[in-house]
Amino acid sequence: NWTVPFMNSLTNWIGNDAEKFVQFVMLLFNDLIYLLDDSLAKLKEIREYEHLEEEEKSGQPLYQQIPPEERFIRRQNQEQNKKLVKPALSLLLHYYKMLSALTKLVQKPFLVPEIIQKIVHNLNFSINKFNGKNAKDYKVACKEEIGFDVRSYMRVIIQVYINFAEFPEFIETIVSDERSFNLEIFQRTEKILQENNLVNQEGLKTFRLLFERLKEKSEELLNSAKLDIFQDEVPDGFIDPIVIEIMTDPVLLPTSNTVVDRLTIIKHLLNDQTDPFNRKKLTKDMIQPLPELKAKIDAFLAEKGIKPK
Predict the structure, then answer these.
(1) pLDDT tens, 55-113?
(2) 173, 170, 172: which is closest to 162 by C-alpha?
(3) Taking Cα atoms as reference points, which of 248, 169, 160 lies closest to residue 213?
(4) For the residues of 171-190, what is the DSSP string, one character each?
(5) In terms of Cα–Cα distance, which of 179, 182, 186 is closest to 161?
(6) What is the DSSP letter of 246?
(7) Could you report the per-residue pLDDT of 149-160, keeping only the tens digit for each?
(8) 193 in helix, strand or coil?
(9) CB count in 10 Å sphere of residue 222
(10) N or C, which end of the chain is more exposed by having fewer CB within 10 Å?
(11) Residue 20: how many CA atoms within 13 Å on its side-chain side?
(12) Backbone phi, psi, residue 258, to 5°
């Protein structure tokens, strides 16, 4: 639990040095993503070995075909995975708790595009893994031995969703996540929250409102011309050369005379203050806006029935 003086100091730091705060959050997420990916991979291997043990006990012929030497190696790998995944899972949970506490304290500093996308993609990916169709891959029998209770992770992950539920940009970012967003998972998660008392009644009410907003936004995007945004008629000059997507806020990099989207280059500069096209020194204040090109892109989007950002 954080003390009031500490929370006040933290709030002041966030408000007075936004750029360093963004860098801190990006580093936090780099660690969190690594821990999550590594933990999930080991949990899957552990579950696969447990399945092999189940085959052994039931006398399955496939198990009998595995040479004794390979069985021994797999058994060693199993014990090694258990030893390695236990501290990783513990640290991962602490990272999620930190994120939950930070986003409960303040929300707006997290809503800058370069941060909110990273948060949403991680949250969507996480509940997809823990509560999606392949969640069984991580339901290990040795969960007590390695300290893995999926409810603990779901509780803090859902709290982060709840902390941002009132912000429209958060809702849109969730639905726009083509990789991991699945409305059915949110519906399933709502039932799990209620059945397992993972959040209080106020939290459950907020999550239900979040689900309704996600449903509305999904229907809106499905019926909009945004689905046609990558058609061949988009002029080449409107496409970001790095992410190959239509730009919404084009800017000029004076060091290479290249046009990219502002969000693309800001994300790059957080980790490397050089021009990605020629490695010359480039800082945020050197970027030049291109209002005329932006107006042309906005007009093109409006013509296609897409609301310019």
Answers:
(1) 777 766 666 777 888 888 989 999 999 999 999 999 999 999 999 988 998 888 899 88
(2) 170
(3) 169
(4) HHHHHT-TTT--HHHHHHHH
(5) 186
(6) B
(7) 999 999 999 999
(8) helix
(9) 10
(10) N
(11) 7
(12) -110, 145
Q: What are phi and psi of 198, to 5 degrees?
A: -75, -25
Q: Are 304 and 225 in contact (CB under 8 A)?
A: yes
Helices then strands, counting H and E runs in the chain, come out as 12, 3
What span, in angstroms and rounded, lies between the C-alpha atoms of 147 and 144? 5
In degrees rounded to 5, what are phi and psi of residue 308? -65, 145
pTM: 0.71
Residue whose tokens read 């991680």:
122
Angle between the 18-57 and 4-16 helix axes, to the nearest 10 degrees? 120
Lowest mean per-residue pLDDT among 63-77, 90-104, 266-280, 286-300: 63-77
> Do the beta carbons of residue 294 and residue 250 sit within 8 Å?
yes
200: which 2 tokens? 């209080």
The token duo for 265 is 């280059």
CA distance 105 to 13: 13
Q: What is the DSSP letter of 247?
A: -
Backbone angles phi, psi at 112, to 5 degrees: -65, 145
Length of the chain: 309
Q: Nearest CA to 282 among 271, 292, 298? A: 271
Alpha-carbon distance of 298 to 69, in angstroms, equals 65
Neighbour-count burial of 153, counting CB atoms closer than 10 A to its CB (0-12 exposed, 13-18 middle, 19+ buried): buried
Distance separating alpha carbons of residues 261 and 114, to the nearest angstrom: 12
Nearest in space to 127 (alpha carbons), one of 161, 94, 84: 161
CA distance 106 to 157: 16
**Rounded CA gap, 152 and 22, in Å?**
27
Do residues 293 and 259 touch, judged by C-beta distance below 8 A? yes
